[in-house]
Amino acid sequence: MARIGILADYNPSYETHIVTDKSLALAASKLGIKIDVEWLPTRTLNTIDLNSFGGLIAGTGVYEDRGLVLEALRIAREKRIPTLATCGGFQFMIIEYARNVLGLKGVGHQEFDADTGAHIITPLECSLRGTEGGITIERDSVVGELYKTERTTERFYCAFGINPLYVEALRESPLRVVGTDDQGLIRVTEFPAHPFYVGTLFVPQAASLKDASHPLVEGLVQAVR
Fold this sequence. Notes:
The protein is of the alpha/beta class. The protein has 6 helices and 12 strands.
């Protein structure tokens, strides 16, 4: 039984939460793998042994305890726990990486860290909430192997993304940019020195709205197995 934890404060009114449950079920069914899924309220993350989970999803929504989410992502990265971070989860994956790997201790999220002078996550020039957009995928990557194509169309729920001032530092680091939109902006990253540590600004789980299994969700389930 593959045990997967979802780092998010579950809200049944969030479409992104509903599709996360459904997408995992679709991926597990397609792959013939039994999974046990547990939502992990962010305020309780310091009481949970994340190593007891085979994999994690850093989900969407507003986190009750953002600090504990950042700590959970650090543990997942350092302990090599397969992790898929989407939309808001991706944004916090980038913050954790910038602080603890790049040494940019003061960077934060402009929506939540008003007192922080340096924001690595800032409002997008145009909000992507409720839109679909094309993504170009690097084929010679973990993500590329899962997609088996260089182009995909994905659904976005985000109004925030990576501050352009930090793009060069990210690209020059071990973190790899493996997906960009038609303007060349970062939309997918992976960490090569890890079994599966993938972040997307879009929500791959939304494929389940059309009863489809998504390759990145399948990749997470496969990595857990």
